[in-house]
Amino acid sequence: MELNKYIVDIAKKAKEASRILQAIDSETKDKALNLMEAGLLKKKESILKSNKIDIKGARSKGLSPAMLDRLTLNEKRIAAMAEGLKTVASLKDEIGVITGMVKRPNGLWIGKMRVPIGVIAIIYESRPNVTCDCAGLTLKSGNSVILKGGSEAINSNRAICEVLKEAAEKAGFPDGTINLIESTDRKSVGILLKQASYIDLVMPRGGEGLINEVVSESRIPVIKHYKGICHVYVDEYADLNMAHKISVNAKLERPGVCNAMETLLVHKDAAARFLPVIIKELKDNGVEIRGCGKTRRIVKDVKPAKEDDWSTEYLDLILSVKVVSSLDEAIGHIARYGSMHSDAIVTENYNNAMEFLKRVDSACVYLNASTRFTDGGEFGMGAEIGISTDKLHARGPMGLRELTSYKYIIFGNGQIRK
Amino acid sequence: MELNKYIVDIAKKAKEASRILQAIDSETKDKALNLMEAGLLKKKESILKSNKIDIKGARSKGLSPAMLDRLTLNEKRIAAMAEGLKTVASLKDEIGVITGMVKRPNGLWIGKMRVPIGVIAIIYESRPNVTCDCAGLTLKSGNSVILKGGSEAINSNRAICEVLKEAAEKAGFPDGTINLIESTDRKSVGILLKQASYIDLVMPRGGEGLINEVVSESRIPVIKHYKGICHVYVDEYADLNMAHKISVNAKLERPGVCNAMETLLVHKDAAARFLPVIIKELKDNGVEIRGCGKTRRIVKDVKPAKEDDWSTEYLDLILSVKVVSSLDEAIGHIARYGSMHSDAIVTENYNNAMEFLKRVDSACVYLNASTRFTDGGEFGMGAEIGISTDKLHARGPMGLRELTSYKYIIFGNGQIRK
């Protein structure tokens, strides 16, 4: 009951703040972001001190080295967080922009005004920089934010939030603009997900378990990034040098991220020429190959791929490889096993390129380029809050624009409906 | 278990169909819509016969006259359904339209292509015309649809769907384009709402009970129309003749619909002049007035408004009236009790108009016009599938465009990420 009241009070306060935030001008927002940046740099010692407490706790709980690395802050990482806030300050503020104004026959002018979404809850794990990135982007887009980080990072998140809140309030933002759920009680997420009258959007960021929990419990709209099972399809008409470069980049440049390739699809008429070379190169770089029957007939010493492999996001130096008989089969495979994230075709054939473009139903469909470009920065957004694999509201990289909604505005001079 | 398989099979079939639908050209869509229109007119006798069975059943169950009216079909209503399909055929098909193409420094071209959402489930009550309207709009926007109407309308819905499905298939659409859940088992809705791997969007249309049930059970994104608690605020600087005309129109033109006024807010300095005249006019037209203390001091024989009144959607000849001390109080009242549907200010004061426009967080914000214009047709959309009171994906009237999503398309010539 105590916990319930604690969460509801935060949600209420965030809602009240959001009503003030929607009318704050861009100058004030940028002032806040600049103060937040300066604050982080000034208080870095105390933030690092708090982070050390979290690391010590995580070590004693036996967290994996990868988790520990994600949790760890240092001067360079704090500087990167501060730099991120500066970038967000430099981005164009679209709140209040009016578009599509039309005049109706009865003289009404009807258009759309871009507005903040309202209150956004972010539920995430480990990395304390998410606290800062999300606070910056939500503030610039006129939203108040409720941050619920992992219990392992609570001291770091508290120290960062304190700095950010103080800066925002100094710039004139209301208390309630940036909110951190400090309770580490696991029930707090469930309570948060029921506050549909105060919270407008929930964005979970983390592993499959967290995402599933949020989707099944939430009464609030959720935008999620589920899995990134990205494909590169090497067509029979591919420039095989290009296909090689793209496949190596999509798998090796950063294997642990969502836009890395997990499955390579190769047309049967290109397989004999392409597979031996690319598999050798990938193996030489430490990649384990799991191939279909046809792949294994062409290249020796390849492990057999199991049915599960086609729908697995390895996030690691593992690649599943399948030989397909046609473009249709490739598109069908992507529809069946993919996660609608990022998929690429390599081809010099115009019709095949266009068919792939039209029929592959992923957030990002690539012709002759690496899937690794799916990223707010690479797309020119300046900063991203995440990548959506949903189909509603926002798909693919989500930047400032995707943290906004619109309202219809109607200018009349006494019109009534007959 | 049997029921589970029945629902899952329909959802799967709809998903498969949606993959084909996304690439069907506009001509084929319009051909289908025209055949659907002709089919409805040709088969009207058998549709009316099925409808009679539903009406008989509803009577024996003691449905209210209003419900019976909503359920009833006649020649005129079937003609209106057919006419609606013709209108949808005449609307522009935006699927495949590419916008916002930019060239990145590395030579990549990145843009957005408009695509169907995929599979849309509509859960609704009573009115059989919803079956036809939704099937037409979803087909034109390239989506397959799963229709779950009320059990009281099952014979009518089955007869209508049969005609529509036959026409769509004749035009070349796959089986699975239009799907009707024929089971009247209440459990079927719950099963449907769990098919997140096949269904992309759920739109409930009906009373508060239905909406709440869908929101709390669904694992699939929901866009809903909740309540329409619409306000007209008469400012101290209002043209009172205009305010009178707008108030009468917003309350009386069609009191049973979501964009009708439920609460009239009047600035204290306009109240003594405005309230006696408007209240007399509304009372003369059968409206019951429930007023705040100040209202009742100005006009006699007005019932007191209770706290509940401010958040009640009457959909009837009842109006709550409140005198406010300031524009701020009016905006605060709307934020607290409104449903973010449609709200209007009547004023000749520029600053007050702009403040209202900026700060009222509703789907449709009106200056000097009746709230009754919130409607797809009035907004120039040609047809609407509903009105959203949500903030994600779509707000206000939803037409063809709102039944679509986008995907990023990226044209490269061998780009890799460094």
Task: Give an account of the 3D structure.
Two copies of one chain form a homodimer. Chain A has two domains: 2-224 and 394-411, 3-Layer(aba) Sandwich (Aldehyde Dehydrogenase, Chain A, domain 1), CATH 3.40.605; 230-373, 3-Layer(aba) Sandwich (Aldehyde Dehydrogenase, Chain A, domain 2), CATH 3.40.309.10. Chain A has a seven-stranded parallel β-sheet, with helices on both faces. In chain A, strands 5-4-3-6 form a four-stranded parallel β-sheet, with helices on both faces. The radius of gyration of chain A is 24 Å and the shape is globular. In chain A, helix 10 (240-252) links the parallel strand 7 and strand 8. Chain A has 418 residues and is α/β, with parallel strands linked by helices. Chain A is 43% helix and 21% strand. Chain A has helices at 2-21, 26-42, 44-60, 65-71, 75-90, 129-140, 154-170, 187-192, 208-217, 240-252, 268-284, 293-298, 327-337, 350-359; strands spanning 98-103, 109-116, 119-124, 144-148, 178-180, 201-205, 230-234, 261-267, 288-291, 303-304, 318-324, 342-346, 364-369, 386-388, 396-398, 404-415. The first copy, chain A, contains 14 helices and 16 strands. In chain A, helix 3 (44-60) packs antiparallel against helix 7 (154-170) and helix 6 (129-140) packs parallel to helix 7. The interface between A and B is large, with 70 and 69 residues.
